[in-house]
């Protein structure tokens, strides 16, 4: 299988990867311009950029690229003990200079939507206009069968999905199941699993949130970290239709993705309340 077919196959599955390409070579080195290597987020490698210290450093750099999700160019001097401006010196004896282009290919963010009802459908419709990988989970077969869009649409019990597959670290989770019982169970499963998420939010009223917090504090104590928990979910832009709610949630996701401050989050309605639950 050629490298382009492998890129296509991984992309179709939503697997983030970095394509490392040799774009320039000066002097001697173990690889020629045009050679490529793929490294997936699961550390699977295809192809080569010459092996040795050069390839070792390239693979290490891919790890940080998966965190930042930004493509970069890096130049290496293949001569131990020498220094060249704007290059990284490697413990090699070839003597040449190699430039590599690291291209991140994959979603900007991974979003899990628990609940494939009206709000889940509307949210997926909005999110899929952007470079987000959207997984939708619901245990109701007739609802799943009617769902359109989404990169993955999974028929599963809500907490069962987390138990079986887990959730990607630093992903976004939206909880909008058909009942508060399921909502509470999903959020509590996230807490119990100690999964590091950028964001997890529950669609609810202020009254429902008070009930959830009361029961959760009774179960786990008040020391649990709910810093990245957003409930009521969304930015305070008004509107109550599924489409309006979807835009509100998407706006909140984008604000966190781009690290924008100064937005009025719905959860801030609790600012002066005894149930203020997150850490600044």
Polypeptide structure, described:
By secondary structure, this protein is α/β, with parallel strands linked by helices. The protein contains eight helices and twelve strands. It has helices at residues 3-12, 52-68, 118-127, 141-146, 158-165, 180-193, 206-220, 242-257; strands at residues 17-26, 36-40, 45-47, 72-77, 88-89, 97-105, 109-114, 132-138, 152-155, 172-175, 199-202, 229-230. It has a six-stranded mixed beta sheet with strand order 3-2-1-6-4-5, with helices on both faces. Strands 9-8-7-10-11-12 form a six-stranded parallel beta sheet, sandwiched between helices. Strand 10 (172-175), helix 6 and strand 11 (199-202) form a beta-alpha-beta unit. Helix 3 (118-127) crosses helix 8 (242-257) and helix 5 (158-165) runs parallel beside helix 6. The longest helix has 17 residues, at 52-68. 34% of the residues are buried. The mean pLDDT is 93.
State the main characteristics:
6-stranded mixed beta sheet, 280 residues, 6-stranded parallel beta sheet, 8 helices
What overall form do the CA principal axes indicate? elongated
| Rounded radius of gyration (Å) | 23 Å
Q: Runs with pLDDT <50, length 5+?
A: none
Number of helices: 8
Q: By helix and strand content, what is the structural category?
A: alpha/beta
Helix content: 25-40%
| Order of strands in the sheet with most strands | 3-2-1-6-4-5
């Amino acid at each position: 299988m050629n490298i382009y077919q492998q890129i296509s196959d991984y992309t179709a599955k939503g697997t983030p990867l970095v394509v490392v390409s040799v774009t320039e070579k000066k002097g001697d080195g173990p690889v020629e311009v045009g050679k490529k290597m793929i490294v997936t987020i699961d550390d699977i490698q295809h192809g080569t950029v010459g092996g040795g210290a050069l390839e070792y450093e390239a693979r290490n750099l891919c790890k940080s690229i998966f965190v930042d999700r930004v493509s970069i160019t890096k130049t290496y001097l293949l001569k131990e003990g020498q220094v060249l401006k704007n290059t990284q010196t490697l413990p090699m004896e070839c003597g040449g200079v190699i430039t590599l282009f690291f291209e991140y290919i994959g979603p900007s963010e991974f979003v899990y939507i628990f609940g494939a009802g009206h709000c889940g459908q509307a949210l997926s419709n909005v999110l899929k206009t952007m470079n987000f990988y959207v997984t939708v989970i619901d245990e109701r077969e007739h609802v799943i069968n009617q769902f359109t869009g989404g990169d993955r649409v999974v028929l599963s019990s809500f907490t069962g999905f987390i138990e079986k597959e887990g959730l990607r670290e630093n992903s976004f989770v939206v909880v909008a199941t058909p009942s508060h019982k399921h909502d509470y169970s999903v959020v509590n499963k996230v807490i119990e699993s100690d999964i590091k998420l950028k964001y997890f939010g529950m669609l609810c009223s202020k009254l429902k949130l008070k009930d959830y917090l009361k029961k959760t504090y009774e179960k786990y104590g008040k020391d649990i970290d709910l810093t990245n928990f957003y409930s009521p979910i969304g930015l305070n832009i008004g509107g109550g239709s599924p489409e309006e709610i979807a835009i509100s949630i998407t706006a909140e996701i984008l604000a966190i993705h781009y690290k924008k401050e100064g937005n009025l989050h719905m959860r801030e309605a609790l600012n002066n309340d005894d149930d203020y639950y997150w850490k600044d």
